[in-house]
Amino acid sequence: MIVMVFSSGVARFLRNPMNWAVDFSSFLFAWACFFAMDIAWRENKMMSVDLFVKRLPAKVQRVIRIVMLLIILAFCVYMIIWGAQLTWTQRFRKFQGMPNFSYAWVTLAVPVGAALLARSTVQKIIKEFSNKVVKEAK
After folding, report:
1. Per-residue b or e along 64-96, where b marks 16 or more CB atoms closer than 10 Å to that residue's CB
2. pTM of the entire structure?
3. Contact 80, 118 (CB under 8 A)
4. Alpha-carbon span 99 to 61, nearest angstrom
5. Tell me: the pLDDT tens digits for 6-34?
6. For residues 24, 114, 110 and 75, what is the CA-based torsion angle, rounded to 10 degrees?
7. Three-state secondary-structure class, residue 43
8. Residues 6 or more apart from 62 whose CB is under 8 A from it?
9. 99, 105, 106, 111: CA torsion to nearest 10
């Protein structure tokens, strides 16, 4: 992606522009962002501020985690619905540098990425409840 944008800039400087390179880079960037977001969420690499939550009792922390996960899941469902509508409305829009490539392929990253994030969130919710069952069994 970086090489494409850089080479596009050099080609433009040499008066032989590659119009498709920046458009294709924006396509790759959209997909990379949503895939990276899911990977970071799955591996607990997202930044969070838990200064106050860490000082609460363990049971309250667990309730807050479950509520947070449910809010995130609701947002993911909203993003899937909204992203599907966005993709549908963009289906006839074309890139300037790539006239045969629909912009819907870029916007499709929104519902697909949100679906991946929802899947990871459901896995976290299941893990949260299964941890409770394991702790109660001991």
Report:
1. eeeeebeebbeebeebbeebbebbeebeeeebe
2. 0.81
3. yes
4. 52
5. 888 888 888 887 878 888 888 899 999 99
6. -150
7. coil
8. 128, 132
9. 160
